[in-house]
What we know:
Blueprint: E1 2-5, H1 19-24, E2 25-29, E3 35-39, E4 43-47, H2 50-59, E5 66-72, H3 80-94, E6 106-110, E7 117-123, E8 125-126, E9 131-132, H4 138-156, H5 179-197, H6 204-212, E10 215-217, E11 223-231, E12 235-240, E13 243-248, H7 263-275, H8 277-303, H9 305-316, E14 340-345, E15 349-354, H10 371-454
Helix pairs in contact: 3-4, 4-8, 9-10
Amino acid sequence: MLVSFFKYGKGSGDGLKGPVRYLLQEEVTLDNKTKVIRPRELAELKRGDPDLTISLINSVSRSTKYSSGVLAFEESSVTEEVKNEAMDGFEKTLFPGLDRDQYDVLWVEHNDKGNVELHFVIPNVELTTNNGIDTYHHHHDVGRVDAWQTLLNDKHGLSDPKNPLKRKAYKPVDRWNRKEDESLKLAITAELFDQIKLQAITNNGDIQKSINELSVNDIDGNPQPIKVIKQTKTQIRIKIADKEMRLKGSLYARDFKVSDYSKENIDRISADYRRDKSKRIATAQKKYDERIKIRSERLAARFSKTEQVIELQNNATSIEMDSNIYPGLNPGNSNISNTILLEPNPYKGSEVRPDTKKQKQPSVLHNTNTTKELEDEKRNRDSVLRDFEAIRKRTDSREKLYREDIKRDSELDGISEKINVVGRVAEFANKVVQRANQYFKEQTANIIKAIRKTDPELDL
């Protein structure tokens, strides 16, 4: 299993090319060249609410609105138990210490390539505070995610992408490669393998030299030379005319040597990899534990629920009623709870309401309470605080949707007003034209009448 994060994340959640619609729908061209949208074949929604994920993505104000990627299994069949463990473990690796209601993850399974792929889309927002959250930063998080990947693959005997035998001489680097570009890269790779068989290539220097000697014909049949413009640790960048491409794979690595791919060397590398398994797993476990602790402390400092509960407790416990606000209630009446619930209204802010559901127990502690009564009081307050927390979460989500509705309504009202103005102008113009026609008719009739007076025999 291989974890991959995509580079996308700055668009909206709507539209066919949005992350959610792309995972669940596809655009196909019929025989009559008509394009239609239909549910994606061999795609299954595993977890999450697509509409909620879209709404959350659109509500994020920062530039990077979401994170997306895939857990790609080489195996064609994976048990549901392993899938669920992979999804749970991945979420814990990204958000250690956070509860499940503090973030949103949409999971969609694809099986169209002959293997199992668990795609994920994560809005970059913490749900209880509506503050932005860095779901994945490669420099800080790649070590932790990589260690988790190694541990899961070892536990379930899954294909390990780090196995030296899995190295590929060539692999595509652009997700949206045009077919002609991909064909050209494959042709270059095939030509280099032919020269390796002839023992004309032994190292990276020979690879670059051979590429510089190649050319490709353009649409007019004129040969265009291929030039190497940059060599990095894992790839070679080439240029053909005004177009640049990347060639990636072990064949194009800076440390490439043909001797490394002899049967004896491959057998030795494979044996070393198997022998070092226990050490490799122990190292991954240590790295995972250390980095999970760092990540957990960082998230707790920003999104700790303890601080939120303390704030709610300060705002919501033992508030005496004001008879001016509730003239029908007597604060001195011991049959009425003195606890006031601040239940937010999702459309108009917060309003004060008496707690009519918890009137059996007084909320103000008395010095004569026994230990049992103190424990009962604590449980009651904990229950109230949990209610506050649930109400606040629902309110935050509703307020966002309400603000969006208000914004859309205001935009529609502006458009409607403009339409009304245009309609009134058109109506006025129509009246002006009617009056002008009437005026011209009257003037024409007067002129004809005057002419007939001067010349009665004239036929008009």
